[in-house]
């Protein structure tokens, strides 16, 4: 099995599907059905293939596995270099899991330009998976930026009324941050003479250079995460994107920023990361408390979930920069858990949106009377988002708080208030949508989940409980890679403390 | 005598062949009936293709001819191939358009051929005099071509504007050349280089610096770099679309090549002096190209500002003044050629009910009505915005690599930020095509040859990432030729 270029297969299989979709000819509905089927089966096959990564993963080492290395642009020593370690393997799985779910969720909701829609999602999958596997900086950047094109089109073509504004804002915000990162990558190249990420992880960059590079990386990742105050593109993009677009956006694209911090900022620039940790703490705390309060005031369900995403990602950034084993593992678990919980919440909104075409909380009420199954599914994900013990959300947030408490008690205290606020806005929204009397005429004949929708939610519910009750299989894979990361970070912290002492 | 002349003639075979072919076609054209015009265009394209094959065959290794006036090396060969490719593609594109719009004069392909001869001469110039000769042959042909539609008010205005401003720029260039001659006593690039290196770091006479400034001003006009860009939007808009397509690629590439040779050849020793000018011009071009394009409603005007911006990015590589920088510029121009020819193919397809249209608003909804054109256009627009994995990204990557290597951090930062602003107006076209509702769409009837060029340039732009090695290697050889001497 190890002789197979497994990662390349996973990355480019969706493009094979694109090729097939381009070939499909036919009339109206038959054609659309064929296109949907090809997209679904391609993405399912990709997912099945990617599970091989997990089953064959050797969790006793922190090294990169399933490596592939081919010369790409020899003039500048740029390689087509792929590989995964404990940190990235789950993000690959998350991407390949969410894509078929997105295809399935768009089965009936998308009726115009079906061909282009499915192509956009499959291309997006290629870029997402490629980004998490890339071990060459230029290759990484190509995938990282390439994501913008299909996402821009998804928001712009199939989005809501203000989709054009949202698509442009999304694109330009992200691009502005990323180009600065590109310059940082090039600067590193001229210092270290390589674009190879594993080599760079063991290279020590000079301190004064690190600060600037760190800020350039921050410009890119902070927009992606998104951190306060550059988070404003997110609510717009989420609200206007079609349901599946929101799912990918919340599920995977937001993780790209945090993944960048984990993969680049901390290993490559550890001293600068230590130096800027207070900045990250402050921005994240503001994000958690401020956006939670903003979420309380939202009348639009998607916007509320979007703001809650910003708050959850605040936990992630705190956890990453607190820099001990618990907090970093917690951050990754929060990312994964948020990946499918927020995705599922957007799907929940999508379910009722498909029926009533409204996302206003005030347009709903008493859904439990007509849609008991839906009420249950919604409740599971709502509780997971709040962080109820037994769900995946709890494991991550608990680990983060545990780790952060050791690093900085005040930060832990302030972050914990975010959990309380989170419970407040989620429960309140749930009450207004699901409970109460069913008075609205539009809701009198609303139907419960269809078999297709149950199929969409079932794997996600399973994951929420699996990760919540027995997270060991996930944490096992993480241990070695995170351990190595934390070790390096710890050394940098001690070094800079000594430096500070010497300065006095 | 003849024995002496012979190797010289042999070295300059591509130019000589093309010039003879143009003259022969002119004779044929004069004595032919009106109906044979299509044949002349075809013959012109054939002549270019033959020249295209002669260029690598006759590529000298820095050998000079005609008493040092002419040089043939890998650098000139690389750019000549680009220029000839651009010329051939735009000529083929013009065919159907010219027929349809009723100005298919046989002079058109012949004038283009003469312009091409001029451009080849520019690229092989090794002396200020041969430089000027090549430049003028090219410019004079272009002035006429720009206003070839003589009954159109806009086209004649464009031609006149181009001529007046172009003549002014030529004057400046000539003045700069005479200053340089006055202070050094030579016009030959090799002896200029030798003299300036001999000065060994002592500040050069002020006259030479003034001369270089004038020379640069003249050349900056030809590549439409800010602040000598004023003619560009008007000429782009006024000239017939195939002419604009031609103007936007071949002469730009030739002039950039000339600029590279002049600055990296004879004046390499004065890099401290000219580098500042190039940096300022580069920043000004990138900023103006990005900002002024935002409000354009005419797609040809938009392309004019886009071209100004692209020249700014090419100058980033030039400002680095290193071999890597020159290689970056060469790669950039090659990719620019494909993107630009492709985009103009799309513009040529913009016809509604038999009439050409140039308004961006007329592209509304063609993602649905004309999916092929829309897809190609979207590829070019994302590529021009520099979004990976499309070719335009790699062009920008190499020039910024060189800039970072030369520690021009401010220039690089301004450059990438203006590319974000620029992305806005490229995306605006994608938006109009895909996000807005369709009206009637464009006419379906698109010429076969236009569709072919459209498809091949789009494929190159889209798939460049898969196999970028060859272009980079060839560009590396070309760039090293400039540094060998």
Molecular structure report:
The complex is a heterodimer of chains A (504) and B (485). Chain A has helices at 6-23, 28-55, 86-105, 114-133, 137-146, 148-158, 163-192, 197-201, 207-224, 233-240, 243-268, 270-296, 301-322, 325-356, 367-370, 372-386, 392-407, 409-434, 451-469, 472-503, and strands at residues 65-73, 78-84. With 504 residues, chain A is mainly alpha-helical. Chain A has one domain. Chain A has a two-stranded antiparallel sheet with strand order 1-2. In chain A, helix 4 (114-133) packs antiparallel against helix 5 (137-146) and helix 4 runs antiparallel to helix 6. Chain B has 485 residues and is mainly alpha-helical. Chain B has a domain at 271-485. Chain B contains 20 helices and four strands. In chain B, helix 13 runs antiparallel to helix 14 (323-348) and helix 13 (299-320) runs parallel beside helix 17 (391-405). Chain B is globular and about 70 Å long. Classes of the chains: A mainly alpha (504), B mainly alpha (485).
- Strand residues, percent of chain A: under 5%
Helix- and strand-based class of chain A? mainly alpha
Order of helices and strands of chain B: HHHEEHHHHHHHHHHHEEHHHHHH
- What is the count of DSSP helices of chain A, taking H or I runs of 4+ residues? 20
Question: How do the strands and helices of this protein lay out in sequence?
Answer:
The complex is a heterodimer of chains A (504) and B (485).
Chain A: H1 6-23, H2 28-55, E1 65-73, E2 78-84, H3 86-105, H4 114-133, H5 137-146, H6 148-158, H7 163-192, H8 197-201, H9 207-224, H10 233-240, H11 243-268, H12 270-296, H13 301-322, H14 325-356, H15 367-370, H16 372-386, H17 392-407, H18 409-434, H19 451-469, H20 472-503
Antiparallel strand pairs in A: 1-2
Chain B: H1 2-11, H2 13-31, H3 37-57, E1 63-65, E2 70-72, H4 74-101, H5 107-123, H6 128-146, H7 153-184, H8 189-198, H9 206-222, H10 231-238, H11 241-264, H12 271-292, H13 299-320, H14 323-348, E3 351-352, E4 355-356, H15 366-369, H16 371-384, H17 391-405, H18 409-435, H19 448-463, H20 469-484
Antiparallel strand pairs in B: 1-2, 3-4
Helix pairs in contact in B: 2-3, 2-5, 3-4, 3-5, 4-5, 4-11, 4-14, 4-20, 5-6, 5-11, 6-7, 6-11, 7-9, 7-10, 9-11, 10-13, 11-13, 11-14, 12-13, 12-18, 13-14, 13-17, 13-18, 14-16, 14-17, 14-19, 14-20, 16-18, 16-19
């Amino acid at each position: 099995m190890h002789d197979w270029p497994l990662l390349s297969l996973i990355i480019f299989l969706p493009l094979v599907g694109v090729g097939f979709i381009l070939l499909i000819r036919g009339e109206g509905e038959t054609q659309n059905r064929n296109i949907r089927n090809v997209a679904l089966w391609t993405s399912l096959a990709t997912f099945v293939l990617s599970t091989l990564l997990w089953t064959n993963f050797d969790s006793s080492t922190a090294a990169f596995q399933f490596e592939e290395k081919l010369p790409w642009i020899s003039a500048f020593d740029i390689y087509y270099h792929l590989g995964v370690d404990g940190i990235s393997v789950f993000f690959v799985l998350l991407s390949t899991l969410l894509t078929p779910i997105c295809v399935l969720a768009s089965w009936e909701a998308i009726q115009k330009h079906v061909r282009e829609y499915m192509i956009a999602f499959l291309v997006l999958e290629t870029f997402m998976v490629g980004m998490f596997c890339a071990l060459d900086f230029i290759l990484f950047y190509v995938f990282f930026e390439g994501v913008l094109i299909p996402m821009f089109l998804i928001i712009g073509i199939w989005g809501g009324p203000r989709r054009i504004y949202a698509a442009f804002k999304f694109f330009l915000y992200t691009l502005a941050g990323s180009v600065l990162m590109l310059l940082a990558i090039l600067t590193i190249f001229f210092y270290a003479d390589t674009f190879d990420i594993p080599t760079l992880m063991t290279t020590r960059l000079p301190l004064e250079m690190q600060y600037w590079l760190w800020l350039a990386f921050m410009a890119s990742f902070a927009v992606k995460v998104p951190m306060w105050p550059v988070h404003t593109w997110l609510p717009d993009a989420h609200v206007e994107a079609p349901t599946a677009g929101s799912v990918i956006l919340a599920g995977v694209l937001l993780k790209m920023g945090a993944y960048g911090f984990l993969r680049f900022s901390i290993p490559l620039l550890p001293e600068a990361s230590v130096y800027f940790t207070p900045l990250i703490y402050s921005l994240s705390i503001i994000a958690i408390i401020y956006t939670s309060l903003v979420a309380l005031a939202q009348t639009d369900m998607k916007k509320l979930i979007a703001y809650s995403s910003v708050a959850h990602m605040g936990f992630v950034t705190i956890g990453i920069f607190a820099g001990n084993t618990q907090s970093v593992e917690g951050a990754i678990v929060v990312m994964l858990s948020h990946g499918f919980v927020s995705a599922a919440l957007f799907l929940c909104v999508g379910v009722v949106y498909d029926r009533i075409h409204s996302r206003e909380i005030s347009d709903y009420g008493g859904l439990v009377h007509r849609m008991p199954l839906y009420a249950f599914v919604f409740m599971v994900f709502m509780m997971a988002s709040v962080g109820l013990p037994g769900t995946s959300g709890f494991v991550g947030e608990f680990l983060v708080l545990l780790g952060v408490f050791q690093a900085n008690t005040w930060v832990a205290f302030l972050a914990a208030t975010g959990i309380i606020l989170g419970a407040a806005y989620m429960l309140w929204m749930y009450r207004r949508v699901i409970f109460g009397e069913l008075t609205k005429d539009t809701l009198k004949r609303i139907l419960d989940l269809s078999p297709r929708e149950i199929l969409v939610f079932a794997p996600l519910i399973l994951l929420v409980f699996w990760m919540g009750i027995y997270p060991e299989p996930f944490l096992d894979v993480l241990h070695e890679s995170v351990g190595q990361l934390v070790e390096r970070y710890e050394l940098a912290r001690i070094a800079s403390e000594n430096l500070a002492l010497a300065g006095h | 005598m003849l024995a002496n002349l012979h190797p010289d003639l042999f070295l300059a075979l591509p130019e000589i062949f093309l010039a003879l072919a143009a003259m022969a076609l002119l004779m044929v054209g004069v004595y032919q009936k009106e109906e044979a015009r299509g044949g002349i265009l075809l013959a012109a394209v054939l002549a270019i293709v033959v020249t295209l094959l002669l260029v690598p065959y006759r590529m000298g290794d820095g050998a000079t001819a005609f008493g040092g006036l002419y040089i043939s090396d890998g650098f000139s060969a690389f750019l000549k191939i680009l220029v000839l490719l651009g010329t051939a593609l735009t000529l083929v594109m013009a065919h159907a358009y010219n027929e349809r719009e009723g100005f298919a004069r046989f002079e058109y392909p012949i004038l283009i051929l003469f312009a091409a001869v001029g451009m080849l001469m520019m690229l092989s110039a090794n002396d200020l005099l041969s430089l000027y000769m090549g430049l003028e042959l090219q410019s004079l042909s272009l002035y006429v071509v720009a206003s070839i539609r003589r009954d159109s008010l806009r086209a004649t205005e464009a031609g006149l504007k181009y001529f007046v401003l172009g003549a002014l720029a030529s004057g400046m260039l000539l003045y700069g050349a005479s200053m340089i001659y006055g202070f050094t006593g030579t016009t030959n690039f090799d002896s200029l280089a030798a003299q300036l290196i001999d000065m060994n770091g002592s500040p050069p006479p002020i006259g030479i610096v003034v001369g270089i400034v004038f020379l640069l001003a003249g050349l900056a006009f030809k590549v439409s770099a800010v602040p000598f860009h004023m003619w560009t939007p008007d000429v782009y808009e006024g000239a017939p679309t195939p002419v604009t397509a031609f103007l936007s690629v071949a002469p730009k590439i030739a002039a950039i090549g000339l600029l590279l040779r002049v600055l990296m050849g004879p004046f390499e020793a004065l890099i401290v002096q000219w580098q500042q000018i190039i940096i300022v011009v580069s920043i000004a071009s990138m900023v103006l190209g990005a900002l002024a394009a935002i409000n354009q409603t005419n797609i040809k005007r938009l392309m004019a500002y886009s071209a100004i911006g692209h020249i700014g990015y090419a100058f980033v590589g030039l400002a680095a003044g290193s071999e890597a920088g020159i290689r970056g510029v060469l790669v950039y121009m090659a990719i620019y050629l494909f993107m630009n020819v492709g985009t103009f193919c799309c513009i040529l397809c913009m016809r509604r009910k038999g009439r050409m249209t140039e308004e961006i608003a007329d592209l509304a909804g063609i993602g649905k009505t004309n999916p092929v054109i829309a897809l190609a256009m979207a590829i070019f627009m994302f590529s021009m915005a520099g979004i990976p994995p499309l070719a335009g990204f790699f062009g920008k990557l190499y020039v910024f690599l060189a800039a970072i290597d030369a520690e021009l951090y401010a220039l690089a930062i301004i450059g990438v930020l203006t590319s974000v602003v620029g992305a806005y107006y490229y995306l605006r076209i994608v938006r109009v095509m895909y996000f807005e509702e369709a009206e009637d769409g464009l006419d379906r009837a698109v010429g076969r040859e236009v569709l072919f060029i459209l498809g091949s340039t789009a494929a190159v732009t889209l798939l460049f990432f898969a196999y970028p090695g060859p272009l980079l290697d060839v560009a590396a050889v070309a760039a090293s030729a400039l540094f060998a001497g």
